[in-house]
Amino acid sequence: MSLRSAFTPVVTRWRSANPYALDTALAALVLFAVSLHWIFPGKGDEQLTWQGWLLAAATAVPLVWRRRSPCASAWAVSAATPAQALYHAPPPDVMYGGMVVLYTMAALARPWQRRLMLTGWVVGVVVTMQHQADKQPFEYAFHLMGLVCAYALGVLARVQRAYTTELEDRARRLERERAADTARARAEERSRIARDMHDILAHAVSLMVVQAEAGPVVVRKDPERAEATFDTIATTGRDAMAQLRRILGVLKEERPDGEVARLPQPSVAALPRLVRQVQESTGLRTELRTTGEPCPLPSDTEIAAYRVVQEALTNTVKHARASRALVELDWAEDHVTLTMTDDGRGPSAPVGGHGLIGIRERAAACGGSAETGRGPDGGFRVVVRLPAAGDRQGALG
């Protein structure tokens, strides 16, 4: 066991103890030190009187209040010490009380107070010792060095306390910032999950509604196709329920770091399956065209690309009354452009909910942009430009 680890518990208990009890013990220790002449008198000692002992006690007792009233305690000791030296029965060999009050003033008092106190004690020691006989030069140095060292220790204690306070404040600020960052990340993740739930439900329900509306007609004309239609409704519903269960499971999951777990998310590679599913489920002739050489996309951009296509096709199925939809992916070196067009009713169609808003938000969150409006040949068009991995920082900046 190292010396530091051995003394750490002692220092901790000392700092946590009652400060007035510590100051009382310190005052008692100083009183004992200045009373040694009376407790163990020597043959060659100067005359001892009870008045001298009272003056010596006056340099120790005020230390009980050194932290409660540092200035008053310091002035009391500063008055008693030269009085004891001038009374000369006996004079103080070591100014214990003076060193304690200088330490206290250097650690606790205001700048002008501690400087005034140090100057007063240095001048007082020099003047007082000049009125005493048989004083040697080394005694001046001894007393002055004792006072200066005590003051320096007080300065170090004050600096250490200020440094510790600053570290604690910084730790508290960092903890608050970390908690705020965690809360913000959780809110953003929950917002993303909410958008995903909207996209999943809107897409699945739209396909199911279209199939259900066509069901009675198909039942009368083509029973075999009607059976396939109802199977498609059931498959779409089961797929939506499975995705919702995974999302709700994530929301209920508790993690030690307080983060929300992330689900496996679809990407651009899943777009052919999405287009095929829409065509098979609704009868809407849907085509996917890809031009250019695919480039790497950040994971959230991959998700955004899939979701905006899904939302655009959902709006087409729900509102456009279109017979045909085209999805185009145009790959460039630093971005990908997704264009979704249909031959439906165009912008006059009542597009309700938050679908288009969600498309713009997803594009903006990835550093991209989204435009919606009438297509060049009528119908409705959605154009979304998303940056690639290499262009992401510039787009966000």
TrEMBL record:
<dbReference type="GO" id="GO:0046983">
    <property type="term" value="F:protein dimerization activity"/>
</dbReference>
<dbReference type="Pfam" id="PF02518">
    <property type="entry name" value="HATPase_c"/>
</dbReference>
<protein>
    <recommendedName>
        <fullName>histidine kinase</fullName>
        <ecNumber>2.7.13.3</ecNumber>
    </recommendedName>
</protein>
<keyword id="KW-0547">Nucleotide-binding</keyword>
<keyword id="KW-0597">Phosphoprotein</keyword>
<dbReference type="InterPro" id="IPR003594">
    <property type="entry name" value="HATPase_dom"/>
</dbReference>
<dbReference type="InterPro" id="IPR036890">
    <property type="entry name" value="HATPase_C_sf"/>
</dbReference>
<keyword id="KW-0418">Kinase</keyword>
<keyword id="KW-0902">Two-component regulatory system</keyword>
<dbReference type="Pfam" id="PF07730">
    <property type="entry name" value="HisKA_3"/>
</dbReference>
<dbReference type="InterPro" id="IPR055558">
    <property type="entry name" value="DUF7134"/>
</dbReference>
<dbReference type="GO" id="GO:0000155">
    <property type="term" value="F:phosphorelay sensor kinase activity"/>
</dbReference>
<dbReference type="GO" id="GO:0016020">
    <property type="term" value="C:membrane"/>
</dbReference>
<dbReference type="InterPro" id="IPR050482">
    <property type="entry name" value="Sensor_HK_TwoCompSys"/>
</dbReference>
<keyword id="KW-0067">ATP-binding</keyword>
<feature type="domain" description="DUF7134">
    <location>
        <begin position="12"/>
        <end position="161"/>
    </location>
</feature>
<dbReference type="InterPro" id="IPR011712">
    <property type="entry name" value="Sig_transdc_His_kin_sub3_dim/P"/>
</dbReference>
<dbReference type="GO" id="GO:0005524">
    <property type="term" value="F:ATP binding"/>
</dbReference>
<feature type="domain" description="Signal transduction histidine kinase subgroup 3 dimerisation and phosphoacceptor">
    <location>
        <begin position="189"/>
        <end position="253"/>
    </location>
</feature>
<keyword id="KW-0808">Transferase</keyword>
<dbReference type="Pfam" id="PF23539">
    <property type="entry name" value="DUF7134"/>
</dbReference>
<feature type="domain" description="Histidine kinase/HSP90-like ATPase">
    <location>
        <begin position="302"/>
        <end position="388"/>
    </location>
</feature>
